[in-house]
Amino acid sequence: MNSTQEDISNLKLAKFSSRLLAYVIDDVLITLVILLIFWDHIMQGGEDIGASLEILNNYLFPIIVLKVAYHTFFVWYYGATLGKIVAKIRVIDYNNFGKVSFSRSLLRAIGRIVSEMFFYLGFIFAFFDKGKQTFHGKIAKTLVVNA
Which positions of the chain have pLDDT values less than 50? Predict the structure, then answer.
């Protein structure tokens, strides 16, 4: 076992319940922002849910950009999204256990979108990893720990 693995075992990694709480809070916040931004367009579909979803699909790229921007900024600047702040957890760099760089925050946010697009399979990685890293955590070399 190398020294990084030994150091990880000494960290207080975030529990699944805290991570789930943070995920739900972040997803609700992003959904509310999307609804506020695209409300007029969504309402063009009237009461037909299918038409409203089709209108939202036309704005898929801006929605993805919004999600990536949210996660990138908050993880880079604060070390945690709003959901993680409420759940009292944060994201740290795997190599030095310090602040996550902008490029790694961006890579993590993009990897998170990829995980979501493929049936959230990237999140399952955390159940089988000693550092509880998800796919996006692995590619960005980050860990989620108690704040």
Answer: 1
Structural domains in the chain (count): 1
Which range of residues forms the domain containing residue 86? 3-146
Instruction: State pLDDT tens for residues 32-65.
Output: 999 999 898 888 877 888 888 888 899 999 999 9
Rounded distance, CA 51 to CA 45, Å? 5
Helix, strand, coil distribution of the chain in percent, nearest 5:
70, 5, 25
Q: What is the Cα–Cα distance from 136 to 105, expressed in whole angstroms?
A: 10
Residue holding tokens 């602040």?
99
Residues 70 and 78 sit within 8 Å (Cβ to Cβ): no
Distance CA 38, CA 7 (A): 45
